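At your convenience, could you comment on the folded chain following this short note?
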Amino acid sequence: MIRYLKRNFSKRQTNKFLIFLLVLDFLFILGHIIIALRFNFEPRSFMVDTDGGYPEIFQYIKFISIALISLWLVFTRDEYGYFAWSILFTFLYLDDAYQFHESAGAYLASSFSLQPMLGLRPRDLGELLYAGFAGILFLVLLLIGFIRGSKIYKGEAFDILLLFSIFIFFGIGVDMAHQWVVDIYMVSAVFALIEDGGEMIGLSLLTWYFYFAAKKSLSGRKFLYKVFFEHPILAPNS
């Protein structure tokens, strides 16, 4: 695996970009831990779970960067499937910045008279419905782009989905699990760090990949997903 990644995904310029993103992520995470343990959670603007704080602004920059790189790929490579990715990450930026999921979750919970279930509040269930509706819409857009895309685009789309699943795991999976322990102060604080810190790292990997796709030559293009599907143990036909 390591040899495959070094041979096909190690490029000086993009490596430096990935290191820059991850170093900033870990500095924010480390800062969060120090502020929480030594300074009683102040200043909040440096905490990774603060709305509108510096870590979240860094996330906004990543969302916007991905959206812009996607548009650049649409016009430079005639890969219109990337237009759907641009819309998706623009939507994620707007949703994160303006908290659409919270207001939509409350609205859906009220409209469908949702009741607490599996330790989740009605608003949490409404947010899951909201995520499901949005997910289906974007899945249709992405599927259209995938069907019409080139062989290289299809490989890149699989890679993006692989990395996007990491982001979703923390953004939705850990977030929902967080609600089960929200009343246990210290455990809730740890979950908040894992959730938002994981989102930061996942989004950095996605930002790096889009940048890598924009810089990498198309000839002899290799893909991340083959690390798993062509592994002798994990390959589908093994």
